[in-house]
Design brief:
Blueprint lengths: L37 H7 L6 H9 L1 H32 L14 H36 L1 H6 L5 H31 L14 H4 L5 H20 L2 H22 L7 E4 L18 E9 L4 E2 L10 H10 L2 E9 L4 H30 L2
Antiparallel strand pairs: 1-4, 2-3, 2-4
Helix pairs in contact: 2-6, 3-4, 3-6, 4-6, 4-8, 4-9, 6-8, 6-11, 8-9, 8-11
């Protein structure tokens, strides 16, 4: 039976008088007094994982090393792409010249952003399915959990080590990718034509959001595996869970910010245009303002056949100006941390459930 601890032991053989020489062999490891050279032994010993940490790392080393290697390769490619982007912008004369005038010259960089952001958005799903779901479900299915329960190590320590190592790999990989991708995007961050900051392509791949989304997906997959106790079934259900999580997150994303409203009362025809918004702002809604301060829909008087008929309709509705609701780009960082804090809290709840369940039924 294999054990969950590793220790190095040294043995020495002592001899009694045999009647011929009556002495012990006094040479051990080259020391005449029969003692180990502790200084040399400690000096040659390399720092390494041991005990439960070593066991968990060895058990999942293929997945962990794959994640870390893929992260390193992705970082190298992003760094290269960032260098290419900066060279192009310097040669083009940005920001003195608008990227709208670049035409097809900038298309390859747009394509690169789209490709990488799509891959980064898939990370929570992939790690939830292939790392989170089998992390403990596999041990429950093949009986390893029962072996753990028979050892001196507690199930709580075993569970804590599994979650800690998996969480560490997730945080390191997604945190590094988030930082490097944000660094790459930063020179053209204000260009909506490159990536809209309220879209998942930008919002879910920079800052703390990818870390929080991936942690929740992975630990959610662990919880699903613990309950179902079957690896394949847990992976299928986790896939559905992570996809639904992405959809729900995207639906409530804009609600994380504080909507700003700006209005005018100078009319809506002729030279009177809607209020100007800050650069990079995301427009949420646009309405008409009446003389009494009420808002009427943007489609009011849209059925008018001529400008004169439309003006008569607007006068009849007492429309005196515009009302525009938007989210400024300056709120992006605060929105990301607010959303990430919600996801971290949900993840903490899942971890609490795992320890509660593990103390009673994780065998």
């Amino acid at each position: 039976m294999s054990t969950f601890t590793r220790s190095s032991t040294s043995t020495s053989t002592g001899s009694t008088s045999d009647g011929k020489n009556g002495t012990m062999n006094g040479t051990m490891n080259g020391t005449p007094d029969g003692t180990l050279n502790a200084t040399t032994t400690e000096g040659n010993r390399r720092p390494r994982l041991s005990g439960m940490t070593w066991l968990v790392w060895r058990q999942h080393r293929a997945a962990f090393w794959t994640i870390l290697a893929a992260t390193a390769l992705s970082v190298a490619w992003i760094v290269y792409q960032r260098g290419q982007l900066v060279d192009f912008l310097d040669g083009y004369g940005y920001p003195g010249k608008s990227l709208d005038e670049a035409g097809g010259k900038f298309q390859q960089y747009n394509d690169a952003f789209s490709f990488v952001s799509m891959g980064l958005q898939a990370i929570p799903i992939l790690l939830g399915v292939f790392l989170g779901a089998p992390l403990i479900a596999g041990d429950l299915e093949n009986g390893t959990a029962k072996l753990v329960a028979a050892q001196s190590m507690s199930r709580t320590r075993w569970l804590a080590t599994k979650l800690a190592l998996a969480g560490l790999v997730v945080v390191v990989s997604t945190g590094v990718l988030s930082a490097v991708f944000g660094w790459w995007w930063n020179p053209v961050k204000s260009e909506v034509t490159v990536m809209d900051w309220t879209s998942g392509a930008a919002f879910n791949t920079t800052g703390p959001v990818p870390v929080a989304l991936t942690l929740f997906s992975v630990f959610g997959g662990v919880a699903i595996g613990v309950v179902l106790r079957r690896t394949l079934m847990a992976m299928v259900v986790t896939f559905g869970f992570t996809v639904v999580l992405q959809l729900v997150w995207g639906y409530f994303l804009l609600s994380l910010g504080n909507v700003v409203t700006v209005t005018t009362n100078k009319g809506v025809t002729g030279g009177n245009v809607s209020p100007s918004l800050p650069h990079g702002a995301y427009e949420i809604d646009q309405s008409y303002v009446t003389g009494s301060g009420d808002l009427v829909g943007w489609g009011t008087c849209s059925g008018s056949q001529t400008d004169a008929a439309r003006q008569v309709c607007l006068d009849k509705a007492d429309v005196v100006g515009w009302s525009v609701q938007y989210l400024p780009m300056s709120q992006m960082n605060a929105m990301q941390w607010f959303g990430a804090s919600i996801l971290f809290a949900l993840t903490a709840g899942v971890v609490a459930f795992l320890f509660f369940w593990g103390r009673k039924r994780l065998v």
